[in-house]
Write a structure and sequence with these properties.
The structure is a single chain. Helix content is 48%, strand content 26%. By secondary structure, it is of the alpha+beta class. The protein has one domain. It has a 3-stranded antiparallel sheet.
Length: 134
């Protein structure tokens, strides 16, 4: 019983940390795929920034993220490929992640709050497609 009483809190902390990091990784994957989906819309001819943001928010919402915390930036760019400049677009998506267990544990040992946790940021770049006949 004594050994169980000593080891059980450590095992619970490890399991909670695994769950916390799993949720963080899940949110990062949703942010990464949302950036990719936004870049796919921005690669099409005639896109608007509102359409890109709407697609990112749709994907993030379907992945369980809070739409109010998702920020999106769309940046047209030029890529140098084989001596030619190709028009492209980069979509950057950011989302703040608040630790559930690890933040509280770190506060105990650090003595100062971690704040909001970390900001997950992902970017996707895609070549712009040309309209038919051009």
């Amino acid at each position: 019983m004594l050994e169980f009483a000593l080891v059980f809190p450590v095992v619970l902390l490890v399991l909670a940390g695994i769950a916390d990091m799993g949720l963080l990784f899940n949110n990062y994957e949703v942010v990464t795929n949302a950036a990719r989906e936004g870049a796919r819309v921005a690669a099409l001819p005639g896109w608007t920034e509102d359409e890109v943001e709407e697609r990112v928010l749709q994907y993030a919402s379907a992945g369980g993220l809070n739409q109010g915390n998702v920020s999106t930036a769309v940046n047209p760019d030029l890529l140098a490929i084989g001596g030619h400049n190709v028009q492209s677009v980069t979509v950057v998506v950011s989302y703040p992640y608040n630790y559930i267990v690890l933040g509280a544990v770190a506060n105990i040992f650090q003595g100062e709050p971690l704040g909001a946790g970390v900001t997950l940021t992902a970017a996707a770049t895609m070549r712009k497609e040309l309209a038919a006949g051009l």
